[in-house]
Design brief:
Number of domains of chain A: 1
Largest sheet of chain B: none
Shape of chain B: elongated
Radius of gyration of chain B: 19 Å
Order of helices and strands of chain A: HHHHHHHHHHHHHHHHHHHHEE
Chains: A mainly alpha (613), B mainly alpha (187), C mainly alpha (68)
Strand content of chain B: under 5%
Oligomer: heterotrimer
Distance between the termini of chain B: 61 Å
Order of helices and strands of chain B: HHHHH
Helix content of chain A: 55-70%
Structural class of chain A: mainly alpha
Number of helices of chain A: 20
Distance between the termini of chain A: 50 Å
Helix content of chain B: over 70%
Number of strands of chain A: 2
Strand content of chain A: under 5%
CATH topology of chain B: Four Helix Bundle (Hemerythrin (Met), subunit A)
Structural class of chain B: mainly alpha
CATH superfamily of chain B: Cytochrome c oxidase, subunit III, four-helix bundle
Number of strands of chain B: 0
Number of domains of chain B: 1
Largest interface: A-B, 52 and 43 residues
CATH architecture of chain B: Up-down Bundle
């Protein structure tokens, strides 16, 4: 019975969702009975919108928030056992764990999808998946990994750690924070339902006109992505406000840990650009559901509009993914090199420069789409400009390691591998930014390999570094160091073998997003597939290590790495209020080896911190 | 301030709320920027002759007037004038409803001249529809504020609910200041 | 805030309202009478119209200025 009572909020959310689904579907039928349009898609849209509202209200939005708006006292809940992870709690640390666990699971699911794809591609012809199933699998892999890449660091690590690092007791809007997490499960449900509604073979980019005309699974995808966008916007809003308003006394902008700066930069993008993808998806939904003509050329519509709007978000979105990864990598490199972060101010400037430039490069995704040729050169120039701030970050990473006393723990190995992989990702990006080479390389595995080098070799490696680095802080227990190193070496080697070979496959003419290929490419595809199976297997070591260590690893001290940032100056895991005595920041966080330097001191007992404001 | 042991003391709450709302407004204005840019991308400055320009002017003036009453209600709440606050909120809601009715009349005409399946109709219905959904959500917020105000929840020292709803309402007005010429006047 | 400030605040509201009405009517006259080429003027007028709302109705400067 304990399980049932612990899951009560979720059961309530599900039952409210069911009621909402019936109401929405009924309204959909009512509206479509007045017109002569087919009723399936309006029923899906309205049914989903009401089901989503029902879910959120049932799972806790009403008790924690809605009651206040009708003049009733809100009902909070407390709890210290496992049940708190299944509730609409406002503690940023619990929400951070909810995000992390959810998205590690999503990452593994999306990884299974990629294994299925590689099985299909082991040999030419049909192996296990038909063309439509293959493309649905590919699209699901894409959108789930995009979600992992966007939300794992901002939603997971930043939620747990950012308030700790700036010395706050929570984020600025704890209830919005909970909302932005609990809006995620419906996204996962919709995506997992798509195969039962005809799938969607458009890829995660969902270009019209294909996405306007194909099966209902596409509509589910669009609604899921739109919902995820809402979560992303709310998260960005919350972190910006938190960083601006809730810094501890003495935590000036020049003393912010670099991870906090990277979240600040990424949150700026997710706050603003995400509205564009929301509008792009809305346009497809309107074309599909109410028969508008955004993309019907006979009525003056133009599919290029979607590509512009979509990439105005989705290119900056890669910086939502990679900026926090820079933050984690630099953080880890600094602490384990036992040296001050090299060129701190330049790195901050580079982050903000990347944010600015990221908004004026989107059309490099449209070189071969038929946009005016006059736009090629300007966007080529802006795109290549981005390598300047990125290069600054890269040099700062090298400068930090240079002559350092490296402590080669698992997180440090992953952070160094991040630098290595991202270099390959960055250099191959230049070929795709250049119009002449891009026209040859577009839409083949060179592109696939390039973005996997930036996002997987870059960001996922940084996520791994973060998982190991902060594992003791989050769980209060140490991971198994030797297993961690085995995981690192197996993942690093198989990863590079898999994706370096993909560059070659691409240059040989292997197209992306197809289930079949000419027999000439059989050898290289078999090679990539086999390597990718070993890569997938390396994640099993990670899962085993995390689960085993969380259950019965050795108990961790408050600061096992003897790092100086604030999250290590409280117990592992931190208490509900984060710091029993609010800290006062007096110096830079990375002054390792500087005589007499102190980052933070606990405030004098008795609330004296108020004088420091 | 002995009770302020938490990292952020109570008196920061108002400025935190304000910043959060402004960030939301900035975010939302990107949505309107996308809407406006799609109008020019797809239709250029084309405007069908059947568009009811005088009605556009009338509903614009109604919305601006509702911004005035919203401002007056916030000021009244800030100075503890409970009656002025409630009356002005009520007037704002009335003007907002009038605006929605105006859009409804406009939509009826539009359905016959340029239905949503046509090029201009797509833009027209999407822009006015997204804006009207903002108006409706603003009306709901104002309704909640009126309800809570009747219960005496706001004082001259604590009226964030009023301020927040009114700011959002002004934002909806600002969005219309850009949408109105984009739809009704350019040619 | 003092109660005595209220009338002057209310007057400010009417002034902003009046300015906005004038701008909207100018926009309307331009839009109806100019055939083509009106859009740059309209864009400028829209910005001029949005500014007093943001400044006087929404109190944008409260964000960084401490209120009395």
């Amino acid at each position: 019975m304990a399980a049932a009572s612990g899951l009560k909020p979720i059961l309530k959310g599900l039952s409210f969702a069911l009621v909402g689904l019936l109401i929405g579907a009924g309204l959909g039928l009512l509206f479509t009975s007045l017109t002569n349009r087919p009723s399936t898609e309006p029923v899906i849209v309205l049914g989903y919108v009401f089901a989503l509202l029902g879910w959120l209200l049932g799972v806790g939005l009403w008790d924690a928030w809605g009651r206040e708006w009708v003049g009733l006292p809100v009902q909070g809940e407390a709890g210290h056992d496992w049940r708190r992870f299944f509730r609409f709690t406002t503690d940023h640390k619990i929400i951070g764990v909810q995000y992390l666990v959810t998205f590690v699971v999503v990452m593994l699911l999306a990884g299974i999808a990629s294994v299925l794809m590689r099985v299909e591609l082991m040999a030419p012809g049909k192996n296990i998946l038909g063309p439509n199933e293959f493309n649905t699998t590919m699209s699901l892999h894409g959108i789930m990994m995009i979600a992992v890449a966007v939300a794992t660091i901002i939603g997971g690590f930043a939620n747990f750690l950012l308030p700790l690092m700036i010395g706050a007791d929570d984020v600025a809007f704890p209830r919005i924070n909970a909302l932005s997490y609990w809006i995620i499960p419906p996204v996962a449900v919709l995506l997992l339902l798509t195969p039962f509604f005809g799938g969607f073979d458009s890829g995660w980019t969902a270009y019209p006109p294909l996405s306007v005309i194909n099966a209902h699974g596409q509509l589910l995808f669009l609604l899921a992505f739109l919902t995820f966008g809402v979560s992303s916007i709310l998260g960005g809003l919350n972190f910006l406000t938190t960083i601006i308003k809730l810094r501890a006394p003495g935590m000036t902008w020049g003393r912010l840990p670099i991870f906090v700066w990277s979240i600040f930069a990424a949150a700026l993008i997710s706050l603003t650009a995400t509205q564009f993808v929301a509008y792009g998806l809305l346009m497809i939904i309107l074309d599909r559901v109410v028969g508008m003509s955004f993309f019907r050329a006979s009525e003056g519509g133009n599919p290029l509009l979607y590509e512009h709007i979509f990439w105005f978000y989705s290119h900056p979105a890669v910086y939502i993914m990679i900026l926090p990864a820079f933050g984690i990598a630099l953080e880890v490199l600094t602490h384990f090199s036992r040296k001050p972060l090299f060129a701190y101010k330049w790195v901050v400037g580079a982050f903000l420069g990347i944010v600015g430039l990221s908004f004026i490069v989107w059309a490099h995704h449209l070189y071969t789409s038929g946009m005016p040729n006059s736009l090629h050169i300007p966007f080529m120039v802006t795109t290549e400009l981005i390598s300047i701030p990125t290069g600054v970050v890269f040099l700062a990473a090298l400068g930090t390691i240079w002559m350092g006393r490296l402590w080669l723990t698992t997180p440090m190995l992953f952070a160094i591998a991040f630098v290595f992989n991202f270099l390959i990702g960055g250099v191959t990006g230049i070929f795709l930014a250049d119009v002449p080479t891009d026209i040859q390389l577009q839409d083949n595995y060179f592109v696939v390999a390039h973005f996997h080098y930036t996002i997987m070799g870059g960001e996922i490696f940084a996520i791994m570094a973060g998982l190991y680095y902060w594992f003791p802080k989050v769980t209060g227990r140490m991971y198994h160091e030797k297993l961690g190193k085995v995981h690192f070496w197996s993942m690093f080697l198989t990863y590079n073998v898999t994706f370096l070979a993909m560059f070659w496959a691409g240059i040989q003419g292997m197209n992306r997003r197809v289930a079949d290929y000419i027999p000439d490419l059989a050898g290289i595809n078999l090679f990539v597939s086999i390597a990718s199976f070993f890569l997938a297997a390396s994640f099993l070591i990670l899962v085993y290590n995390l689960v085993r260590s969380w259950a019965r690893g050795t108990v961790a001290s408050a600061s096992p790495w003897r790092a100086r940032t604030l999250e290590w100056q409280t117990s592992s895991p931190p208490p509900l209020e984060n710091f029993p005595h609010p800290p006062v920041v007096v110096g830079h966080p990375y002054d390792y080896g500087v005589p007499g330097s102190v980052h933070a001191a606990p405030a004098p007992v008795g609330g004296g911190s108020e004088d420091e404001r | 301030m002995v009770e302020a042991t938490a990292s952020h003391p109570v008196h920061d709450r108002l400025s935190i709320n304000r910043l959060g709302l402004w960030l939301f407004i900035i975010s939302d204005s990107f949505l309107f920027a996308a809407l406006l840019s799609s109008r020019f991308f797809l239709q250029g400055v084309h405007r069908p002759a059947e568009l009811n320009q005088p009605l556009g002017l009338v509903i614009s003036i109604i919305l601006v007037a509702s911004s005035l009453t919203a401002y007056r209600s916030e000021m009244a709440a800030a100075h503890g004038d409970q009656r002025g606050f409630r009356n002005n909120i009520l007037m704002t809601i009335g003007l907002g409803l009038l605006f929605i009715i105006g859009v409804g009349v406009e939509w009826r005409e539009a359905f016959t001249h340029f239905p949503p399946s046509t090029g201009f109709g797509t833009i027209f219905f999407t822009l006015t529809g997204v804006h009207a959904s903002h108006v409706l959500s603003g009306l709901i917020l104002l309704g909640i504020v009126l309800f809570l105000g009747r219960k005496g929840r706001f004082t001259s020292g604590s009226y964030w609910g009023v301020e927040g709803a009114v700011k959002y309402w002004h934002f909806v007005d600002v969005a219309w200041v850009f949408i109105y010429p984009t739809l009704y006047l350019v040619s | 805030m003092h109660r005595t400030e209220l009338p002057s605040k209310m007057r400010l509201g009417f002034i902003v309202f009046g300015v906005l009405i004038v701008i909207e009517i100018i926009e309307y006259v331009l839009g109806v009478n100019m055939k083509g080429g009106a859009w740059p003027l309209l864009a400028v007028l829209a910005v001029i119209g949005a500014w007093p709302i943001v400044q006087y109705f929404m109190h944008f400067t409260q964000l960084w200025r401490r209120e009395e």
